[in-house]
Amino acid sequence: MEMLTIGAFAKASRLSPKALRLYDELELLRPARVDPETGYRYYAPEQLEQARLVAWLRRLGMPLAGIREVRALEPAAAAQEIRAFWARIESETATRRDLAAFLVDHLSRTVPGNPGKPGDPGNPSKDTTMLELRYSALSDTGLVRPANQDTAYAGTRVLAVADGFGSGGAPASSAAVEALKFLDDEPLPAGSVLNLLEDAVQGATQAVQEVAGPTNEIGTTLTAMVWTGSQLALVHIGDSRAYLLRDGGLFRITHDHTMVQSMLDEGRLTPDEATAHPQRALLLKALTGSGPAPDLDVRLHDALVGDRYLLCSDGLSAVVPEATIRDTLTTAPGPDEAAQALVRAANDSGGPDNVSCVVADLVNTGPQ
Question: Among 63, 283, 287, 329, which is least packed by CB within 10 angstroms?
Fold first, then answer.
């Protein structure tokens, strides 16, 4: 068999000799033969396809450990793994993009000579308007469960829904929400609200751990929003959800931390298959009593007058179609009516789980 020297193989595969030596040491791409006297590496021509795959995956940003896993898979399974990797990258990039957009906007407003926008902090004007939330919270046991383990709360600044699970699910969900309520009374400048929210969630995590003890069989989801006066800060973990109704369109602004959602992201399930999947309620992340504090989704959302927000447990989203949720939010005149109608819709669909809703409208209360 005609062998390629490491130099020729590097040129053909677009990998440097240094990279090839590293991949050999890591057993990621071994040479076909090593000269026992000189230690010189030789590669077979059929290894070029493997080497090009490694090069492409490195350009994609995949870690070496991930490349090793992909190399060991059959082509179809390797394609699935690459799709899953890229879905994670896109999710992480979206979160960083939102934070970057906030920082650009926030810092731009502080530039000397920049007049900012009417209503910006530090830019009072006769045209400045006062925005506030009008809200309603409602929680119901449903028609099947013997007790309600959900907690729903709406205050001047804080909106929250938590869905507890396990034998201590009710106190776990209550503890998580209670740990956020102090933010109702705190001054919340947009520039520091994410830090304040992350600190509050650390308190919520500790509160749940005290309730649950050293077990992950007791815990809770948590989806909450905090109003700064100009923006809404979101924190989310689990499969409770937050939706935004804007200009007649309904947008889900949270991402479920479930096994089924991860399989959807990876292309291993279709939406129809996910609806009927036996493990659709299996959580990948939650606040529990064991293990380190999990990573939560935390970000800022710009708010517009006329926005209507919905936070809900999966007792609503799992049984009521999004089209029905959108129609209900669109037609209900106020938050109270909307929350009541949504809980009623869940119970009309069998009420298999506890159901909780928080509905909040962003309204203009007129000039200062």
Answer: 63
